[in-house]
Amino acid sequence: MSANQQSIRNPDPPVQDSVFKQFRLDGRTVIITGGAGGIGYEVARGLAEAGANLALWYHSSTQADQLAGKIAKDFGVKVATYKVDVSDYSAVEAAVSKTVQDFGRLDVMIANAGIPSKAGGLDDRLEDWTKVRAIDFDGAYYCLRAAGLVFRKQGHGVGIATASMSGHAANVPQEQTCYNACKAGVIHLAKSLSVEWAKWGGRVNSVSPGYINTAISGDCPFEMKEAWFGLTPMKRDADPRELKGIYLYLASDASSYTTGADFVIDGGYTAR
Ligand code: NAD
Questions:
Q1: Cα–Cα distance for residue pair 272/264, rounded to 1 Å
Q2: What is the 146 CA–ligand 1 centroid distance (Å)?
Q3: CB 3.0 to 4.6 Å from 244: which of 37, 46, 76, 106, for a disulfide?
Q4: Which residues cross the membrane (predicted)?
């Protein structure tokens, strides 16, 4: 076989005959940021049900240990909690190292933490822009970078970033320029990293949720929710459990040929 033929040879993809086995995560370690609530917590439960051990990263929750204990009990997996501010790279790097030390391996990083904001309007303070960007955009990069350095050494690893439908369309009725721009950036961050990571066997994708019933959207005034539902073909928001499937697909070998893709889960909002 020539050197050229060798370089395009299929390097033994992790294919299983059983589709159910493709979705299993037994013994793998997954970090999920924003893991003590909302989308992060439900996704964590989904991955634990598929056998993953979990490093639940949280920021301000007072219930993280209790929630971690419940997941461990319900699914018989190892779950540990880490208090981490994702906008602080040295904290992220230290928490990745500690996770690898505690679990002995790292297979998946889910950069999910984020805050909503209307920052970015002409009358808004520049400091608000900087704060939102530091969490919603820099934070996603910091998590993927710190995990990516571990993944590259071992020659495999999966990154998943939570973006938003707001990264595809300027979300109305509330103006949220900084959030929209950061989430568009997160989609392209995952795409760009996927090209680099493919060289050594890593994959990166993003998920763009629409209106999901969590603290972020749940606290909005009723009139705003009503307007959102009116703009959503399915005329409702989603339960965060409706996102478990896409994260499990992306975290597992079921998606072994999927990289650089963004998955919009928005009840049809951006299709309209
Ligand atoms: P949530 O408020 O329950 O979760 C956000 C999490 O991010 C919280 O656990 C919070 O503690 C954490 N966080 C905030 N600042 C942090 C920091 N500096 N360091 C570490 N963690 C920090 O809301 P959610 O809806 O579960 O949001 C999860 C992700 O989904 C976010 O990135 C959000 O932008 C995105 N999203 C949500 C919706 C929605 O409608 N709920 C829609 C699209 C995208």
A1: 13
A2: 20
A3: 46
A4: none
C-alpha 70 to ligand 1 mean position (Å): 21
Number of residues assigned to the chain: 272
Q: What is the pLDDT of residue 7?
A: 57
Q: Is 179 a catalytic residue?
A: yes
Q: Is the CB of 34 under 6 A from ligand 1?
A: yes
139-197 pLDDT, tens digit per residue, is: 999 999 999 999 999 999 999 999 999 999 987 767 899 999 999 999 999 999 999 99
> Using CA atoms, how far apart are residues 254 and 243, in angstroms rounded to an integer?
16
Question: Is the ipTM value over 0.90, yes or no?
Answer: yes
Atom of ligand 1 at shortest range from CA of 218 = 41
The answer to whether residue 191 is catalytic is no
Residue nearest to atom 32 of ligand 1 (CA): 114
Of 63, 85, 216, 243, best ligand 1 pocket probe by most atoms within 8 Å of the beta carbon: 216
Q: What stretches in the chain show pLDDT beneath 50?
A: 1
Name residues whose C-beta falls within 8 Å of residue 94's C-beta, 6 or more positions apart in sequence. none
Instruction: Using alpha carbons only, give the angle 184, 177, 230 rounded to the nearest 5 degrees.
Output: 85
